[in-house]
Every structure is written in structure tokens, then in C-alpha cells.
Amino acid sequence: MPSPAEEPPEAPAPARRGRPGYDQETVLRRAVELFNTQGYDATSVGDLARDLGITKSAIYHHVSSKEALLSAALDEALDGLTAAVDRAVAADPDHTALERLRAVVEESVRILVRHLPAVTLLLRVRGNSEVELSALRRRRTLDEKLARLVTEAVAAGELRDDISPDLISRLLFGTVNSLVEWYRPGGPVGEDELAHAVATLAFEGLRA
Questions:
Q1: What's 70-204's CATH class?
Q2: Could you state, in order of their start, the residue ranges of all structural domains in the chain?
Q3: What's the CATH number for 19-63?
Q4: Could you read off the pLDDT of 93-152 as tens digits, one per residue?
């Protein structure tokens, strides 16, 4: 049996990726918070590392770049909205265009509430990079599908025809988007109540 001096050294423990508890999802959530408070262009990977209390190299164990974090956040917002719009467009023809339009308005509100930081970030992009330009192209596609749904409702006599369908669509979803400026989850108004209120105001007005 070898003496202690002759024993081979222990193999080094495998390196840990950042602090315990910090996974890719946590890094993404904190990054989106910083992008929203400081601005994407003004936020560096170093800023994110300091906020998390880990090294920049630990960040790169989770993501390849700051742009990858932005892309993941924008996809989070857009994937939910795209799915909601596509469901409305492809809904059972027994549902009228107005019913489908109201459904997509309500679902858009719920998506905004559930993914508020990501949707907030989406609404602030200006096309300063290919990632942002791609997100803006996806938003335009959604706007076009929604405008067509409004046009169907107008043609069916379900919506007034003295306002252009494009303007109706912009006003409807401008109202939904404005929620990011004041709505905070956890308050007295839940997502279902908020979705119902927005849709009721939009389609029935305030008249008693």
C-alpha cells in the first residue's frame, strides 16, 4: 500500500457553470429586465454578469451572445401572439369573423400579461439589428392577418364600415399594446378580467 506521499492527487472537480441556481432561463429573465430598464443597446454582457453576480464567461456557458438573448425574448413574445392570430384565422367557419376577432383580442391580452417583460421588449425594438428587423417583419405579418380579419367582419356587416379596417385594427391592438405601460401582474385585476374588459370596451363601448 503506498504511503500518503505516494498517492496520486485527486482529480479536480468539474467546473460549475456560474452560481448555483442560475440556469439559462434565469439568465434570460434577468437580461430582459435589464434590456427594458436600461435599453438593449446600452446593456452589455458585463452589465448582466454584474447583475447576476457571476463572471462574463459564466454567461457564455448559457448563451452565445447578447443578440441570442434578445432573439429568445422576442421569439417568446411573437410565438404566443402568432399562435393566437393563426388560431383565429383558421377557426371553425361556424364562428363569425367578429367572434374570431374578439377571441384574438382577448387572447392577446392574456399573452401580454403572461409574458409582459418579453412583449414590452418587443414593442420597443426599432430595427437596429437583423434580430430586431426580423421581429418587425413578423409583427407586420401579424398586423396584416389581423387587418384581414377586421375586413371580413366589416364585409359581413358585423363592424361599422365608416372607419377603415386598417385603422380599426391599429386602434384595437394599439389599445392592447398600451397595457405594457401601466399593467402590473399581481394587482387587483387578473388576466381574464382584463381581457374581458378590453374586448368589451372595444366591441360594445361604454354605453350602459
A1: mainly alpha
A2: 19-63, 70-204
A3: 1.10.10.60
A4: 789 999 999 999 999 999 999 999 999 999 999 999 999 999 999 999 999 999 999 999
